[in-house]
Specification:
By secondary structure, this protein is an alpha+beta fold. Helices cover 28% and strands 22% of the residues. A hairpin with a 6-residue loop joins strand 2 and strand 3 (35-40). The protein is globular and about 40 Å long.
C-alpha cells in the first residue's frame, strides 16, 4: 500500500477523514449532502473485480459499516452507493445519504446543482456525527 496515491480530482473535491484497513475515507466538499467516498488504497485499480477476493470482502465490509453509520448519523430516506468512475478512473465508492427533501431528489446528485461549500463548523459537525459511529478499525487523520 505504500505506492497508493489519491487521484488529484478526488483530493481536490474532498476532505481526507480516515483510513480503514483497506480504504481511505473522504468527505465530499458538497455540503448539501452527507456524501462520503471510500477509496481502496491499492494502485492501478479501476474496478471492484480487479481487487483480490480478500480485498473485495474487506471493501464490502467497510462499505456496509460506513453506510450503516451514515444512515444512523444523518437519518436519511435512502443511501445511494455507487462506483461510477467515468471521470476519475481510480476505484472509489460514493456513499450519499439522500433525503426526499434534498435539491436533487429523486434524481442523481451528479451534475444537478453546483456544489455548496462547507463552512468550517458545519463540516466539523458532520465529521463528528460520523466519527462517533465509526470506531473500531478506523484511524482518523
Amino acid at each position: 500500500m505504500t505506492d497508493f496515491v489519491l487521484h488529484p480530482q478526488l483530493a481536490a473535491d474532498s476532505f481526507a477523514l480516515a483510513d480503514a484497513p483497506l480504504s481511505r475515507l473522504l468527505l465530499s466538499k458538497d455540503a448539501r449532502y452527507p456524501w462520503f467516498i471510500l477509496v481502496p488504497r491499492r494502485s492501478d485499480i479501476r474496478e471492484i473485480y480487479q481487487l483480490d477476493a480478500a480485498d473485495q470482502a474487506q471493501l464490502l465490509l467497510e462499505s456496509s459499516t460506513l453506510g450503516r453509520a451514515a444512515m444512523q448519523a444523518f437519518g436519511g430516506d435512502k443511501l445511494n452507493v455507487a462506483a461510477l468512475g467515468n471521470l476519475v478512473p481510480q476505484l472509489h465508492v460514493h456513499h450519499i445519504v439522500r433525503f426526499s427533501s434534498d435539491a436533487a431528489w429523486p434524481g442523481p446528485v451528479w451534475g444537478r446543482h453546483p456544489a455548496v461549500a462547507y463552512d468550517e463548523a458545519a463540516r466539523e459537525q458532520r465529521i463528528q456525527a460520523l466519527k462517533t459511529r465509526l470506531t473500531a478499525g478506523w484511524h482518523w487523520l
